Amino acid sequence: MMPAKKKSRGLRVRDLLLLIPYVALLFPGLYARHDPVLWGFPFFYWYQFGWVIGGALLTGVVFLLRRSERTTR
User: Which of 25, 22, 15 is nearest to 59 (CA)?
Assistant: First the structure.
C-alpha cells in the first residue's frame, strides 16, 4: 500500500506574486509626484491605476496556476 500524499498548504512562489502590487504601492513618497504626465494625468494617479490593472492580471495568473496545479493532482 502506498502512503497517501500530504496536501501542501504552504506558501508557494506563485503566491508571492500577489505581494508585488502591495509592495509597489507601500511607499507613496516614491511615486507622489506630478511628472511625467500621461494623457493629462499626473504620475501619482496613473501609477496607482496601472497597479489596479497589474494587480488584477497578477491575481488572474495566480488563479490559473493554482487551478492547473489542482487539475494535475
Answer: 15
Q: How many whole angstroms separate alpha carbon 62 and alpha carbon 67?
A: 8
Average pLDDT rounded to a whole number, residues 42-61: 95
AA letter at 17? L
DSSP 7: P
CA quadruple 31, 33, 39, 40: dihedral, nearest 10:
150
Cα torsion for 39, 44, 48, 49, to the nearest 10°?
Answer: -20
Residue 45's pLDDT band (cuts 50, 70, 90): very high
Cβ atoms of 55 and 21 within 8 Å: the answer is: yes
